[in-house]
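INFO batch 0412 | record 1 of 1 | parsing
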Amino acid sequence: MKTIKLKKIIIKILKKYGFNNYNAKLIAEILIYAEFVNASSHGVSRLSMYCNRIKKKLIDPKGKIKIKNISNNISLIDSNNNIGFIGAYAGIKQSIAKAKKYGISLVAVKNSGHYGLSSYYIDKAVKSNLISFCFTNAPPAIAPYGAKKSLFGTNPIAFGAPIKNKPAFIFDSSMSKINRGKIRIAAKLGKKIPYGVALDKFGKITTDPKKALKGVQLPISDFKGSGLAWMVDILSGVLTGSAHGGSVKDPFDDFTGPQNIGHLFITFKANLFVKDFSKRILNNIKKVKKLPKIKGVREIMYPGQSKYQRYKKNKKKDINLPKKIYDELQNLLK
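INFO prediction complete | emitting tokens
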């Protein structure tokens, strides 16, 4: 499907479900961004879930963003149970503005929801020649190390740094071996998941996504991944006044209340300590790229490089939606 046509359909659906034109366009842009970088698990496939939660009054498309300035460069944003994209976008905008003016900023967001890909928001900061960290928590998926019941979310960590005249350095990773969205879309499309990324409810390795969703996802690097997921739960949940410790609602299955997800943005100028940051990071990357390569590797890529290449390539092409996702869009239009 042509990108312009798909965007118009998404905007029409979102306006039907109560969003104003500005917010509908923003949400559509973020969903399509996910498709462009081959992260369809966070793209159009999630639209029916968001609309379902709006119908059940668990997302308020009219929710007004409230910004409380704690100091010159520290803010707390109440997303007021609007969709996660709106609160997160307000958060990174505020973080960028404060960092530009004061050198560094800390912005927390509460009463929010799932916001798509963290890299979308980080990209906004690096385009302003800023370095940024982003943390967000998620519904239970990972068991704390030593436990057999999931409690922490996949809790992604994202970091970005600008590189003059080159794609930005953007690292965006969940703390699980595979993000939950990929398991969700595999379940929806009847596909298997990779071996060794999840356990079923009996603690056995499974490639069945439906069994994995009822079981436990495995963290990266065992206890280290579990510790990082816990850290994100503290930063984006405990610190911000949002849900934490396993109390974030699953957007697909838990309709007992709003998600109340928290986000945290830390943004600062790249030249705070050195005036030649651009030169230094380029030199840093050159050193890595000159290292001897293992067999089959043509180029050592830095985080964000391949994602940028996918974005540029896919932006020129039509977006191929699975029939099941296309049918969902048509049903949402009715």
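INFO post-check: The longest strand covers residues 104-112.
INFO record closed
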